[in-house]
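User: quick one, fold this
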Amino acid sequence: MEETRENKMGIMPINKLLVTMSLPMMISMLVQALYNIVDSVFVSRLSENALTAVSMAFPMQNLLIAVASGLGVGMNALLSRSLGEKNFKAANKAAMNGMFLEAIGYVIFLLIGIFATKLYFTAQAGQGEITDLGVSYMRICLIMSFGVFMQFTFERMLQSTGRTFLTMITQTTGAVINIILDPIMIFGLLGMPKMGVAGAALATVIGQIVAAAMALMFNIKKNPDVTLDIKRFKPESKYIKTILSVGIPSIIMASVGSVMTFGMNKILIAFSSTAVAVFGVYFKLNSFIFMPVFGLNNGMVPIVSYNYGARKKTRMTKTIKLAVIYAVLLMCIGIVLFQTIPDVLLGLFDASDYMLEIGVPALRIISLSFAFAGICIVLSSTFQALGHGMLSMFVSITRQLIVLLPSAYILSKLGGLNAVWWSYNIAELFSLALSLIFYRHMYYKSIKPLEITE
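Assistant:
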């Protein structure tokens, strides 16, 4: 009977559950980090202008992913909570309304791709080769972005019901297809025409579309917790508002990072272009440390949401504590690597002597903040899982725009380039204090009142 169904998120031992749900996500996140770097390596072999054009497209691509991911997070939290409440009808409606919102998101970026791509590049680079290359690249990415929105929709449904191993398969498959097709379509191998940056864009969207198709198939064939009935679907404001209440703050949080990066680049360029390069290399390197933590979070969120809906307080709090411990341990690995072999890490990017002179102290100073960041990331995801996305958004904005950028600017004037990197530690301490205050408030308001049913 439907009423007696119990998802593994309500009965499996927490430690085993968190590991089994998070590990596939951590692996897929690492693959994602790898193919992003490989993508840039292939494009850079075309020309510096090609790499510049693709780099200029990044903020728009980041916004696209922020919208698709944010809406998916909102749907994920509502769907998992509904399953925990054994309200399968509401879970199905959460899934369908989430699909509806993702479709609207795609239409918006489709229109941007058709009508605003040229304007986007000419505003940055004027007329010339960079704009021409950028338009051909980004137009394909946006017009065919239905693959991104479908992929996030159906993968989040799998995550919401505890089937994270299947999402590892879809994400890894999409990334591997991209990596394989990149050189073939960019350079015209195996009889294919040489398409340059357009080939890079096509390789990306083909990988996304294949991953989306696989995720849809897995939901139909292997996800009995969600039933997709498009014929009877009607948008319902109650579900849309709930999804957006979590999704919009998540979208804003993801977008804030682009603003922060732009601001830091403006501060660093006053010292040298190499300082900006070091900052860019840092982001590529830290993705291998932070991505597993984000994967851990993706496994944690549906567990917390499900048990919140099921009113199982002990399972919720144990999940959060274990996630914090694992996140800090992962970040400590990053600290050790950045402290002991920063020159080796920078050498992966063919760093010059001057880049090493700037980069070695930069990596060592910034990495001191990793442990604080691990705690903050888990707590922020907890806020989202319980429907308090505004708290996550406030912490993110405070950290990156209110504390990090101003402190970086002040330190650049008072102590020079090496002092700028300490702004990360200052920002993470503020973020940690704020996250703990918000968690304490949320615990007494939302978690403590729950009846312990275990």
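User: anything notable?
Assistant: The mean pLDDT is 84.
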